[in-house]
Amino acid sequence: MVMTDLLKPEEIKKALDAFSAATFDPKKFFEMVGMKAMSAENVKKVFQVLDVDGSGFIEEEELKFVLKGFSKDGRDLTDAETKAFLTAADKDGDGKIGIDEFEALVHE
């Protein structure tokens, strides 16, 4: 499965363009690509695309490249953006984002 099976390419491009120079805001980004309006089940499908190593978690190393999961043209997150994203989503403090934590952040 690829991201464009779940989200509209034009919405992905618009959101990536919006954060090409601006500080990345995951909640705003997810809303811009249409994820906030998606069912929990479909948000979890997006998570599975982003979970590159298939571990069931998005670890800090994967998080840095999360925008590339939406499009090969996505930029890398800065270290500060990566840490802020992890802090916002990692509710149990284990240093990684689980599928339920991801879904909760999208629908927050």
In short:
This protein has seven helices and two strands.
Q: Secondary-structure blueprint of this entry?
A:
Blueprint (H helix, E strand, L loop, with lengths): L8 H10 L7 H7 L7 H11 L6 E3 H4 L2 H5 L8 H11 L6 E3 H8 L2
Antiparallel strand pairs: 1-2
Helix pairs in contact: 3-7
Name a few traits of the molecule:
mainly alpha; two-stranded antiparallel ribbon; 2 strands; globular
Strand content: 5-15%
Helix content: 40-55%
Query: Using DSSP, what is the number of strands?
Result: 2
Characterize the largest beta sheet: strand count, sense, and whether it forms a barrel.
Answer: 2 strands, antiparallel
Q: Pick out the low-confidence regions.
A: none
The shape, in one word, is: globular
Between the first and last Cα atoms, what is the distance in angstroms? Answer: 25 Å
Q: Estimate the mean pLDDT confidence.
A: 96
Q: Order of strands in the sheet with the most strands? A: 1-2
- The Rg value, from CA coordinates, equals 12 Å
Which structural class best describes the helix and strand composition?
A: mainly alpha
Helix/strand order: HHHEHHHEH
Number of alpha- plus pi-helical segments: 7
Give an overview of the whole structure.
With 108 residues, the protein is mainly alpha-helical. Helices cover 52% and strands 6% of the residues. The chain contains 7 helices and 2 strands, in the order αααβαααβα. It has helices at residues 9-18, 26-32, 40-50, 60-63, 66-70, 79-89, 99-106, and strands spanning 57-59, 96-98. A two-stranded antiparallel sheet has the order 1-2. α3 crosses α7 (99-106). It is globular and about 35 Å long.
